[in-house]
Design brief:
The chain is an alpha/beta fold and 370 residues long. The chain folds into 2 domains: 122 residues, Enolase-like, N-terminal domain (Enolase-like, domain 1); 233 residues, Alpha-Beta Barrel (TIM Barrel), CATH 3.20.20.120. Helix content is 39%, strand content 24%. It is built from 13 helices and 16 strands. An 8-stranded parallel beta sheet has the order 5-6-7-8-9-10-11-12. Strands 1-2-3 form a 3-stranded antiparallel beta sheet. Helix 5 packs parallel to helix 6 and helix 9 packs parallel to helix 11.
């Protein structure tokens, strides 16, 4: 009888990578990718890579807390374990550790990468449905009208057919920015908007009504994540479809949003859910209710983005993707995995995530913790 490989080693690498330009949205301004890369090594000499991309405002974690949880709580629970029992391992960690979803996601992604390599399959093929590419939005932050136009022009010239614009500041300013984009570039590309909880219910309803003429595909998270009743009210009074993002971290959250008819769509992020294992449960709940999903990202390297792409392309209920943050980094120690051109994100051929880590660059961006 064949024996499954064991998890023999787990290496943890906190990294800090500057962005090409600061990225502003309603909750904060981000200047660096501060994440934690994880490598597990199996007894058959295969490796798996994962990433934690925490955010205090969204996941309730920093890179320091993710690093600590990974080093002192998760690592001791996985060393020596049979990787084929990954579901038991991940469920045990969920029971033992409340929250900390991006730290859990780092292990989850690494385990899935290693499992797919062990099977000789691309990760999405192992998950049951392999596509080689997907369409993704590219994102313009919460900028001035002039800078919004400048960034949108660059993206359109590069072939982007789907652009997301961050909103959630003053509703009148946001409306004028979106109006200017449509007047400047016309109607032959898709626009989505994302308020990141920046509006009150009243502001959201007013802003979205004024944006109705601009052919908006959908609006993400217009109101505070805990205000499900408010989200439902915005959805009822807006002709622009509403997507729940920060309101949905877990399968239970998804069930609540769907039961209260608070959103037309759910944004699944591996860093919010705790990884692929839990994200598949969210997708299954949404599929049972016939609620479409999108897959989004935090500020991540290609490790997290590739994992998001493999998950997105394995789920038929996923209709949209926002998996572009790797192109905002000045450098990325992860090579391969995915390649973004315009709005097309192509997955590289190969087992697992199909990427490698540049060890020299990894050392350059490594955060010294002692």
């Amino acid at each position: 009888m064949l024996t499954a490989p064991l998890i023999e080693k787990m290496d943890i690498y906190p990294v800090k990578i500057p962005l090409i330009r600061p990225f502003r949205f309603a909750l904060e301004t981000v200047t660096d990718c501060e994440s934690v890369l994880v490598r597990i090594h199996l007894s058959n000499n295969l490796d798996g890579w994962g990433e934690a991309a925490p955010d205090l405002a969204i996941t309730g974690e920093s890179w320091r807390t993710a690093l600590s949880i990974l080093e002192y709580e998760i690592k001791p629970r996985v060393l020596g374990r049979d990787i084929s029992a990954y579901s038991d391992i991940l469920n045990e960690i969920d029971r033992a550790i409340l929250g900390n979803p991006s730290a859990k996601a780092a292990l989850d992604i690494a385990v899935h990468d290693a499992l797919a390599k062990n099977a000789g399959l691309a990760l999405n093929a192992m998950l049951g449905r392999a596509a080689h590419s997907l369409e993704t939005t590219q994102t313009v932050g919460l900028e001035s009208r002039e800078e919004t136009i400048r960034q949108a022009r660059r993206l359109r010239e590069e072939g982007a057919s789907r652009i997301k614009f961050k909103i959630g500041s003053e509703p009148e300013d946001d409306v004028e920015r979106i109006r200017a984009v449509r007047e400047t570039f016309g109607d032959n590309f898709h626009i989505t908007v994302d308020a990141n909880q920046g509006y009150s219910v009243r502001q959201a309803i007013r802003a979205l009504r004024h944006m109705e003429p601009f052919d908006i595909d959908f609006c993400e998270q217009p109101v505070h994540h805990s205000d499900i009743d408010g989200l439902a009210e915005v959805r009822e009074k807006s002709s622009i479809p509403i997507t729940a993002d920060e309101s949905v971290h877990s399968p239970g959250d998804a069930l609540k949003v769907i039961q209260q008819k608070a959103a037309d769509m759910i944004n699944i992020k591996l860093m919010k859910s705790g990884g692929i294992h839990a994200a598949r449960k969210i997708a299954a709940i949404a599929e049972a209710a016939d609620v479409p999903c999108m897959v989004g990202c935090m500020v991540e390297t290609k490790v997290g983005i590739a994992a998001g792409c493999h998950f997105a392309t394995s789920q038929s209920i996923v209709k949209y993707a926002d998996l572009d943050s790797h192109v905002t980094l000045k450098e990325d120690p992860a090579k391969g995995g995915v390649e973004l051109k315009g709005s097309s994100e192509r997955l590289e051929d190969g087992p697992g995530l199909a990427l490698a880590i540049d060890e020299t660059l990894l050392r350059k961006v490594l955060v010294q913790t002692s």
